[in-house]
């Protein structure tokens, strides 16, 4: 999964952007129903307004297939795992906008990026194999972006020798691609042609602003960038027309340019320089929420006030408020089941000993392969921090017997609980839609992070010890 992170200080841009946009986080998503609506937790519109997409994968080799995009400007990855080869799997999605999904794979130690359009009722078909030159086997209509664009440097900041020439080259490529699309009336209707051109426009804007501004010192270059800077704001609604990772890339790069122009490295402080039209977009909401969630513990009170000021959507304000409060009484008074089928109040489950200053919750399921892969690291950490941290595992399996048998086979019954109801207050309050997921609380049950570092991550110990008292 692509998890977008925005660095507050804007230093070491090249490596930061790789971290920001190319952290591949393999996660499982619960898919017990034949049809999965991926935006339920984010306010999916009526069914009649939805766009339906089917993802088919033929697994020649075993592994996890992933496609990445944004939903309501939040990073989203559709993951389809298969422990067996020569197996076909399918997943259905409901979306509210035309979407561009991206896939990333290593070929001879180089990242290859592919882009696939979903317009209305579309099926994307793939072959998952290590040696496949082309993994896409579906309708050519949805593959148009890979014909027009051959670019794997999606996130790396560009450092052209001559920026004016670079911008002109990007503009000519953009105009050429637009003409190609306009010739395809027999393949795409007017609306579909419009969506493709919208993406090409976003791609063009992102390319010309995804440069190292520290190398910009020519007044003509700045004047040229100013021209396109204004043009983006005159066309700001583009940022809300498609589900695509380019929306956040562009917003981040606009803030970088604003920071450069105003000689202020603090991106949040640069928000007030941006045109007020930006505040009409979902893109700003998603950007700010990601910024807060990624760097919450390093933000000042002033930063938090700034973020809350600019977040417009009530749903996002609720998430903000949740980050700065204890777990609600509604969740505290809800019940979990233990391995003996006894009910336990959530508040009792979280009680700590006198020596324990933190509570770490593991959200998992028996069907989630990445969750199971985390268990050795979880067990090792549990031993390392025994007496200092309370480790609690909560499964979202809907089959109690399967969950119980799995734990029995591992002889692991301590602090294990299950939630089989998808409408449970805890699931709803924290919008649990992807696993594995870890939550860190202090001994007063205040939320430190509702999406904490995985135990297998090399940074886990460093992160956890910052909060140990």
Please, could you describe this protein's structure?
Its main location: other. Keywords: Coiled coil, Cytochrome c-type biogenesis, Disulfide bond, Redox-active center. Residues 325-469 form the Thioredoxin domain. It holds the Pfam family Thioredoxin_8. Residues 164-191 form a coiled coil. There is one protein chain. The protein starts with 12 loop residues before the first helix and ends with a helix. The relative contact order is 0.10. It has helices at 13-21, 144-148, 163-182, 190-209, 219-234, 246-261, 282-295, 301-310, 314-323, 329-332, 346-349, 369-384, 400-410, 425-429, 460-465; strands at residues 51-59, 63-71, 74-82, 87-95, 99-107, 110-118, 121-128, 335-338, 343-345, 358-364, 389-395, 416-418, 437-442, 447-449. The chain has 469 residues and is an alpha+beta fold. A hairpin with a 4-residue loop joins strand 8 and strand 9 (343-345). Strands 9-8-12-11-10-13-14 form a 7-stranded mixed β-sheet. A 3-stranded mixed β-sheet has the order 4-1-7, with no helix packed on it. The protein has a two-stranded antiparallel ribbon with strand order 2-3. Helix content is 35%, strand content 20%.
Question: In percent, how helical is the residue content?
Answer: 25-40%
* Distinct helical segment count: 15
Number of strands: 14
What letter string, H or E per element, gives the SSE order? HEEEEEEEHHHHHHHHHEEHEHEHEHEEH
Structural class: alpha+beta
Alpha-carbon distance between the two ends: 33 Å
Based on CA atoms alone, the radius of gyration comes out at 23 Å
Low-confidence stretches: 1-48
Give the integer mean of the pLDDT values.
80
Strand order of the largest sheet: 9-8-12-11-10-13-14
**Strand portion:** 15-25%
The coarse overall form would be globular
> Largest sheet, described in full?
7 strands, mixed
Oligomeric status: single chain
Domain Thioredoxin: 325-469
Protein name: TlpA family protein disulfide reductase
Keywords: Coiled coil, Cytochrome c-type biogenesis, Disulfide bond, Redox-active center
Coiled coil: 164-191
């Amino acid at each position: 999964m692509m998890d977008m992170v925005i660095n507050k200080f804007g230093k070491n841009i090249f490596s930061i952007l790789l971290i920001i946009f190319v952290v591949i986080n393999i996660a499982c998503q619960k898919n017990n129903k034949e049809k999965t609506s991926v935006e339920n937790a984010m306010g999916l519109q009526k069914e009649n307004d939805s766009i339906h997409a089917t993802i088919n994968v033929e697994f020649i080799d075993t592994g996890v297939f992933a496609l990445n995009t944004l939903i309501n400007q939040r990073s989203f990855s559709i993951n389809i795992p298969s422990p067996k080869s020569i197996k076909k799997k399918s997943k259905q999605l409901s979306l509210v906008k035309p979407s561009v999904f991206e896939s990333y794979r290593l070929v001879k130690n180089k990242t290859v990026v592919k882009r696939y359009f979903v317009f209305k009722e579309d099926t994307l078909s793939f072959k998952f194999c290590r040696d496949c030159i082309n993994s896409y086997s579906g309708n050519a209509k949805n593959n148009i972006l890979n014909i027009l664009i051959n670019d794997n440097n999606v996130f790396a900041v560009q450092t052209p020798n001559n920026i004016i020439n670079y911008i002109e080259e990007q503009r000519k490529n953009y105009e050429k691609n637009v003409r190609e699309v306009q010739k395809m009336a027999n393949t795409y209707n007017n609306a579909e042609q419009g969506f493709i051109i919208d993406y090409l426009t976003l791609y063009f804007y992102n390319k010309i602003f995804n440069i190292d501004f520290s190398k910009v010192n020519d007044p003509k270059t700045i004047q040229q960038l100013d021209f396109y800077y204004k043009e983006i704001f005159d066309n700001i609604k583009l940022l809300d027309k498609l589900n695509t990772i380019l929306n956040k890339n562009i917003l981040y790069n606009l803030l970088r340019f604003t920071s450069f122009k105003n000689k202020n490295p603090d991106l949040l402080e640069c928000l007030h320089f941006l045109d007020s039209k930006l505040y009409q977009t979902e893109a700003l909401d998603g950007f700010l929420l990601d910024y807060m969630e990624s760097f919450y513990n390093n933000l000042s009170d002033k930063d938090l006030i700034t973020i809350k000021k600019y977040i417009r959507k009530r749903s996002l304000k609720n998430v903000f408020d949740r980050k700065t409060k204890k777990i609600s009484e509604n969740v505290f008074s809800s019940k979990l089941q233990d391995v003996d089928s006894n009910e336990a109040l959530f508040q009792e489950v979280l009680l700590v000993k006198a020596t324990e200053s933190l509570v770490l919750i593991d959200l998992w399921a028996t069907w989630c392969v990445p969750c199971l892969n985390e268990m050795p690291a979880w067990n090792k950490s549990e031993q390392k921090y025994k007496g200092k941290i309370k480790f609690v595992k909560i499964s979202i399996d809907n089959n109690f017997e399967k969950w119980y048998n799995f734990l029995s086979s591992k002889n692991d019954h301590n602090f294990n609980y299950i939630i089989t109801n998808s409408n449970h207050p805890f699931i709803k309050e924290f919008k649990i839609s992807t696993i594995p997921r870890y939550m860190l609380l202090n001994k007063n049950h205040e939320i430190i992070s509702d999406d904490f570092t995985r135990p297998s991550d090399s940074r886990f110990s460093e992160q956890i010890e910052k909060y140990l008292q």
